[in-house]
Amino acid sequence: MNRTDPSDLFSRLVLRSLSHPLPAVAQYTLATVAIVLVGAFRALLVPDSLPWLLFIPVILGVSLVTGRRAGLLAAAVATAAGVATIGDPGNPTWLTAPQGTGAVLFFLVMIAFVSLTASLRQTMSKARALNVELVQRERYLADREAFLSSVLAASTDCIKVLELDGTLSFMSEGGMLVMDISDFNAVRGCPWPDFMKDKDVPLAQEALAEARQGRSFHFEAQANTFIGTPKHWSVSVSPIRGPDGQVARILSVSRDQTAMVEAREQQRLLNNELGHRLKNVLSLVQSIAYQTLRDAGSLEEASAAFSSRLASLGRATDILTATAWQTAELHAVLESGLAAASALKERISVEGPRLILEAQAALALTLAVHELTTNAIKYGSLSVDAGTLAIRWAATDDGRFTFLWKEQGGPPVQPPTRQGFGSRMIERSLRAYFQGMTELVYDPAGIEFRIDAPLPAVARSGRV
Amino acid sequence: MGQAVPARAILIVEDEPFVRFDLMDFFEDRGFRVFGAGDAEEAIALLEADDTIRIVFTDIQMPGAMDGLMLAHHIRERWPPTLLIVASGRVTPRDVTLPARAAFVGKPFDPREVLQEIERRSV
């Protein structure tokens, strides 16, 4: 803006008259009044000398500030005023011959001066207009550059400009940030493909070759940041054309997709793990099926028992899903194992501390409790109104886990004639799962089932 | 059954007790003498104690210092004539190097297939 603000008063006055032109009438009035005042001043103070001289700066001033027409008017009025004040009333021609020649010469010279000055004024006007345009253009370019810079800086992509040979010539601020580069000069001129992991270098070279041919290219690659942090990138390479339409440089935009790639990998691992667990559960189901059919009295009985066992397994799965198949809490395990007796809750008392079980033990205990519950409802204490069931467990200070299932008030218990699924499952499987002692007692007063196992094998994170 | 010939002995190495006992039942029902182990250490102890065990079925994924694959290699080296069957629900034979003459089954499997494999390899 300084360029349009000249320091001297004279130029400022001229520029002001250019930006705020007076109406024509005012211009003419100004010219006339100024000349008349100067004429009167001269006639009063120095009547005998300088008839023309004082008019010259006024005419020049008027033509500079108002232009050619008012300038010519001022010249004419000044000539008239001069003629009027220097004449002699006794002379029939008013002026002497030299005076008349002087007046004519003055007028002619003034016309020339006015023309010259008006041209000068026009030139200043053009210069001013050019200046304004230049300043506007500069401001537009500065704004545009600031805008583009802010857009580039705002992007978290790594935006780079490469020379045709693939060397780096520009990198966006955001790009330097994600690439851990603090000073671009450290990488200026480096071959861009060298940043890629060895296996991806050919891809980057192919991208450059395509861009040089005027085509865009996209690829995914691994590259370390400047300080060696490995990252995954999604890279788009495209040609930048010069004014002649030829590929002048190459644009490369890389997006850090490390988090996405890692999430994808995590998901793949989870899927594999899920597949593995699914197969394990299927193996378990297969075993339950074989064991169920092995000692079934009839197809109908086997079908009913199998369905009920699968439902119990499903409930155990619910508890385990909540902890990603790691652990289950004993109260929750019992609740799912006792689901068949949910209508008889007031006759069942459950007491014990919060205890975390490993997934395998939790599944086995759910199935065992399910077998005991089904048996109690069919033949045991829960088969009659007066019968009760007490479940107690403790984690003792010497590191043992004791569990007791005790039925009371049911019909007299008779030992089974042969071992069925339930008792086999309870006795040998639970023993193995808990790596301790299990005991199923057919006390005539009511069935009793005990576990006595070392705590570490049972509780993963101990008592709470 | 099979009184004329002494019953064949099979060792089932599987860390999931329920599946282990089920497989043991299956082979017991078909006239085998069965042994079960929950990990490699237990399996080796059983093999050392009873030299009539000539068939070993082992799961690959098992807790402990030695997994089922290492156990299978160990058995092949120490008791070369043993009939080995290796199972896994996680890996395929392409992912691992099985001992020579070991059969692989993917979990879950039909125990009858394992039995057929044993019969085929016993001839």
UniProtKB/TrEMBL annotation, chain A:
Keyword Zinc-finger: no
Pfam family, one: HWE_HK
Ranges of residues in domain Signal transduction histidine kinase HWE region: 273-354
Gene3D superfamilies linked: Histidine kinase-like ATPase, C-terminal domain, PAS domain
Keyword set, alphabetical order: ATP-binding, Kinase, Membrane, Nucleotide-binding, Phosphoprotein, Transferase, Transmembrane, Transmembrane helix
Its EC number(s): 2.7.13.3
InterPro entries: HATPase_C_sf, PAS-like_dom_sf, PAS_4, Sig_transdc_His_kinase_HWE
Catalyzed reactions: ATP + protein L-histidine = ADP + protein N-phospho-L-histidine
Annotated TM spans: 21-43, 49-65, 99-120
Enzyme class name: transferase
This protein's name: histidine kinase
The organism of origin for this protein: Rhizosaccharibacter radicis
Automatic annotation (TrEMBL), chain B:
Gene3D superfamilies xref list: 3.40.50.2300
Pfam families registered for this protein in UniProt: Response_reg
4-aspartylphosphate sites (modified residues): D59
Keyword hit for Iron: no
SUPFAM superfamilies referenced in this protein's UniProt entry, alphabetically: CheY-like
Protein keywords: Phosphoprotein
Residue ranges constituting the Response regulatory domain according to the UniProt record: 9-122
InterPro entries, alphabetized: Bact_response_regulator, CheY-like_superfamily, Sig_transdc_resp-reg_receiver
Superkingdom in the source lineage: Bacteria
Family matches, as PANTHER family: RESPONSE REGULATORY DOMAIN-CONTAINING PROTEIN, STRESS RESPONSE REGULATOR PROTEIN 1
Protein's recorded name: Response regulator
Native species: Rhizosaccharibacter radicis
